[in-house]
Amino acid sequence: MATRRDWHDLPEGVRQAVEQRTGPVAGATSPAGGRNSELAVTLTTPSGPVFCKGITTGSPLAAMHRNELAIGPHLPADLAPRLLWHVEQDDWLLLGFEHAAGHHADLSPDSDDLPAVADAVTRIRLTAPPTTQRPMASQWAQALKTALATPSNSDLITDWAAKAPDHMHGGHLIHSDLNPANFLITDTAKVIDWAWWRTGAAWIDPALLVIRLIAAGHQPDAAEHWATRHSPDFATTPPDALTAFAASVVRIWERRFPSTPTTTAARTWTRHRTSCHQN
After folding, report:
1. pTM of model > 0.70
2. What is the CATH number of the domain that holds 263?
3. Buried b vs exposed e over 118-136: b needs ≥16 C-beta within 10 Å?
4. Residue 56 needs a FRET pair 20 to 30 A away by CA distance; which of 143, 211, 222, 230 works?
């Protein structure tokens, strides 16, 4: 987690470099959320509000901002706020985005936000840019190697989890963190915070969203039905792939954050998936 800074904490040269792109900054308002940027502000500029996020270049979290810088030019304007500019100066990396209005998604069963979320999931179905590949299967296998070295109470889950990376290869763009805070809802939905993007099978984002839906109150079969209706890729994914992936999420997340509602939801989905194989 990054220590949050104020706009006026930035070196003068950095602020001047930003204003060369925006015009004079009349104000800067920090949002309540966010934890991976040292600076996260909405700037008041002559041409309207601009969202600016940034990090000191020596921070371990700088890689996340470079990920966003790499993928930003490839994201459609109807899916994500446009990356307008970036500044790298005086040991700071700042990204300037089109300001996007809206509220974070409510994923509960009766939510009015679900149609907009479904539409966004459909629009994420993009081929990854050919110049930059970040295979999720490789990253997932490495994370699993560490997780599976930790003792588990369930050999069944461990056995299933080990199979997951083999199913995750593909050339599609994967957001990989479709939590409610990364949707901005108006009459449509935009998807923000692409720091964890990867390349892989197109069913991965809908599968991760199944876990978020369960955490929001959906029953596992209802969450799967929702994903099946709104993602042809999820609908045609072999059952073994989904079971292996669910089990792998449990093993990885239990090691990193064992007590969160999303990890509990991943356990619930995995129990549902493995029981389907036993019946």
Report:
1. yes
2. 3.90.1200.10
3. bebbebbeeebeeeeebbb
4. 143
